Write a sequence for this structure.
């Protein structure tokens, strides 16, 4: 195996090999990086992945479209709601249907909450890795509040499985809106505090500015998306450029950096948290009552009282569970702006109950593939900063 | 429309096309991949979003290598499919697009399709002496022999089963 060969490499006296991972406090999931060092300078960095490979795409071929939703939770497990939304949008594109307005608004609401939670994890953990522990505590308190909201909405903190094809699994409980209002106030205050702790902190700036610099052309060539691409100066955000779920009707800005270094990525993420809070505010203001799933017995399960009391509904329920949906033959690629970048689902349907092929385009795989390029010639401490700012999530990387 | 530009500049390159739910798809032969990619790059399709493959065991040629492109100026997307037979190879794009490096390694790993000219064509997700290619349709869902360790050299213990 490669990694074993690596660790047995014959090195001359000046160089040494350092293993980061597969289980290491700064690797955020099981991935391994073999660093070849000369003093503290990195001369080679060989990333190795696959430790969390569980064959999601293979499994998807044996599951019905509806059954795949729980697997999407486990892609980027920091913001599983956004994966749920991205996947159901892909299947809805294949079916040619659209969720009702309230479902779309709630999807935007939970997606942005998930984005806030994901950026909080990324910024907070990046700060801890570099040594700024206090900011982490302020941020993680807000993350807990966000997860409480997820729990309120879906019954689960991490593996939410909140969406269904054609809508949502259930409506928001009554206490959700006031609690989200409270979260908006508290989170804004916490972000202000974190900015006071980090943005104006010379040590934080010294550790992040100029580390992991990348030009806009290089970033595009490497396939960067999301905050890392925007930090490099490319204003590409699918919520603006290819709007879905009515994002074009919300008022928000796309923060863009200039150098693409860890410092810019941090600033972009912090600003994106603020912009997401802005979107959440707008959703709360316009949330209208209505159905939360399409009224189509060929797609959505009928309600329990109908199943128990009406023959047709019982038949529909049975047909949907046993035979699945009637899918058109064809292929679609649907992409959404997840916290890390473009999360794409490519689905090939042969008309059967299960997808013929389901491909997940993970945003952090192309970003992580540039890791060696990013850290070569830098210090080992910078590798930790770069890895944190890339926000590599092994669940999504390895699938 | 990009497909018209391809038709005008590289006639006969496109062997099949369709438009489903707003997704433009073109099918081209492996030989015309590099000229088409050059043209796409000049036309502004500079973002290679994804490379993957689909296995059609009953069909000849057996695989489709599927590329997704994005034009960041016009936000137009294009899907390019290259049919390839089992054992045949596709020219690599890793020299023009760095993002292709790992995506092609992944396709090689999971489908066993090789990319000629790739600088470092190794498995990406599975271990190096893993037998078979998991995303092929004839690979068993439970992993089959590969995970039973019988007749398979495990990456540890010198390839021998303990006990």
């Amino acid at each position: 195996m490669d990694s074993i060969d690596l660790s047995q490499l014959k090195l001359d006296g000046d160089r040494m090999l350092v293993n980061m991972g597969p289980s290491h406090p700064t690797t955020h999931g099981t991935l391994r990086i073999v660093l070849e060092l000369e003093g503290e300078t990195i001369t080679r960095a060989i990333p190795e992945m696959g430790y969390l490979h569980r064959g999601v795409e293979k499994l998807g071929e044996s599951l019905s479209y509806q059954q795949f939703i729980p697997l999407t939770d486990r892609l980027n497990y920091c913001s599983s709601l956004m994966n749920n939304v991205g996947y159901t949008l892909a299947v809805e594109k294949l079916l040619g249907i659209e969720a009702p307005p309230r479902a779309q608004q709630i999807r935007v609401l939970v997606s942005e909450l998930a984005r806030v939670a994901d950026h909080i994890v990324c910024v907070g953990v990046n700060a801890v890795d570099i040594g700024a522990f206090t900011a982490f505590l302020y941020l993680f308190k807000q993350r807990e509040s966000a997860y409480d909201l997820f729990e309120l909405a879906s019954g689960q903190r991490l593996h939410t499985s909140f969406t269904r094809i054609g809508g949502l699994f259930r409506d928001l409980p009554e206490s959700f809106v006031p609690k989200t209002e409270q979260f908006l106030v508290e989170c804004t205050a916490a972000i202000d505090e974190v900015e006071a702790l980090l943005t104006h902190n010379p040590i934080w700036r010294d550790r992040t500015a100029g580390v992991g610099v990348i030009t806009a052309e290089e970033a595009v060539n490497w396939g960067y998306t999301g905050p890392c691409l925007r930090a490099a100066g490319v204003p590409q955000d699918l919520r603006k450029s290819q709007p879905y779920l009515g994002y074009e009707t919300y008022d928000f800005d796309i923060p863009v950096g200039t150098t693409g270094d860890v410092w810019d990525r941090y600033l972009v993420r912090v600003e994106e948290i603020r912009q997401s809070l802005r979107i959440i505010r707008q959703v709360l203001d316009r949330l209208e009552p209505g159905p939360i799933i399409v009224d189509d017995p060929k797609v959505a399960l009928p309600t329990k009282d109908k199943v128990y009391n009406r023959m047709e509904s019982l038949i529909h329920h049975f047909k949907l569970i046993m035979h699945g949906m009637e899918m058109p033959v064809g292929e679609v690629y649907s992409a959404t702006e997840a916290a890390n970048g473009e999360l794409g689902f490519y689905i090939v349907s042969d008309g059967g109950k299960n997808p013929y092929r389901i491909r997940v385009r993970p945003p952090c795989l192309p970003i992580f593939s540039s890791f060696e390029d990013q850290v070569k010639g830098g210090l080992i401490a910078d590798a930790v900063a770069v890895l944190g700012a890339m926000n590599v999530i092994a669940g999504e990387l390895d699938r | 429309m990009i497909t018209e530009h391809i038709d005008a500049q590289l006639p006969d390159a496109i062997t099949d096309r369709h438009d489903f739910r707003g997704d433009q798809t073109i099918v081209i032969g492996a030989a015309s991949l590099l000229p088409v990619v050059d043209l796409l790059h000049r036309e502004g399709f500079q973002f290679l979003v994804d490379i993957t493959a689909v296995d059609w065991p009953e069909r000849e040629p057996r695989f489709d290598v599927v590329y997704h492109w994005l034009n960041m100026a016009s936000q137009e997307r294009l899907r390019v499919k290259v049919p390839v037979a089992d054992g045949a190879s596709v020219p690599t794009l890793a020299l023009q697009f760095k993002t292709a490096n790992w995506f092609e390694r992944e396709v090689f790993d999971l489908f066993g399709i090789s990319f000629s000219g790739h600088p470092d064509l190794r498995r990406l997700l599975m271990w190096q002496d893993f037998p078979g290619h998991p995303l092929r349709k004839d690979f068993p869902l439970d992993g089959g022999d590969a995970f039973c360790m019988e007749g398979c050299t495990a990456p540890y213990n010198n390839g021998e089963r303990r006990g």
In short: The beta strands of chain B are 14-20, 23-28, 47-55, 63-71, 76-84, 89-91, 114-116. The longest strand of chain B covers residues 47-55. The CA atoms of residues 152 and 158 of chain B lie 11 Å apart. DSSP finds three helices and seven strands in chain B.
